[in-house]
Amino acid sequence: MALPRRTTTTTLTAVVVLLTLGFPGAPAHADDDPSAPPGSVTTSPPPEVDATSPGLKLADGATLAPAKVLDIKSVVEDLGGEERREDTNSDVTFALQAEVLFPKDSSKLNPDARSRIQAIADEIKAQNATTVRVFGFTDNLGSYAHGLTLSKKRAEAVHDQLASALGSTDITFEVRGYSEDYPIADNTSEQGRRKNRRVEVTFPRGASSGGTQS
């Protein structure tokens, strides 16, 4: 699906199997991404690795930590950062800045928002997705409670338009508002706050889907 207007950088991170050497008494390390909202992270089962394989050439006393698969991730956004598409091997996420969807401090969709949401609905259909997450976020200005209400109402507005565009009763939606939680940019600048004021739509990639689209 074509993003509106221009695109800039595509970042690709290859699939990696982490085979970390673990020594007796070494502490375990968790590197979960705290910026990802609950329920929005999916992982594929890691491949089985034979810890006794002579080809590993482990040092005496060393063992393998559990294997971990890092998703292939491609990110494409327009020059203004108004819309971003992120593809992994399991999910597609569209992030739309609030300014392109709503008037200031409002949850009423503007006329231009409908065409952007329709494009996302078309991609949901193309991927044959049956589950869709719609999450709303704000910056850190104003009270947390106000942001929670506003982000939820904005997510609900996008959900309503998506559901209408999809015209299907076979899709399960999860709709949440997170206020200023899970920022993706620095809230100390207006540029960062603009990125944090957003609605994200996430759905699984179709099993028969080809390469990343832009």
From TrEMBL:
<dbReference type="InterPro" id="IPR050330">
    <property type="entry name" value="Bact_OuterMem_StrucFunc"/>
</dbReference>
<keyword id="KW-0732">Signal</keyword>
<feature type="region of interest" description="Disordered">
    <location>
        <begin position="28"/>
        <end position="53"/>
    </location>
</feature>
<keyword id="KW-0472">Membrane</keyword>
<dbReference type="InterPro" id="IPR006665">
    <property type="entry name" value="OmpA-like"/>
</dbReference>
<feature type="region of interest" description="Disordered">
    <location>
        <begin position="184"/>
        <end position="214"/>
    </location>
</feature>
<dbReference type="Pfam" id="PF00691">
    <property type="entry name" value="OmpA"/>
</dbReference>
<dbReference type="InterPro" id="IPR036737">
    <property type="entry name" value="OmpA-like_sf"/>
</dbReference>
<feature type="signal peptide">
    <location>
        <begin position="1"/>
        <end position="30"/>
    </location>
</feature>
<feature type="domain" description="OmpA-like">
    <location>
        <begin position="89"/>
        <end position="207"/>
    </location>
</feature>
<keyword id="KW-0998">Cell outer membrane</keyword>
<protein>
    <submittedName>
        <fullName>OmpA family protein</fullName>
    </submittedName>
</protein>
<dbReference type="InterPro" id="IPR006664">
    <property type="entry name" value="OMP_bac"/>
</dbReference>
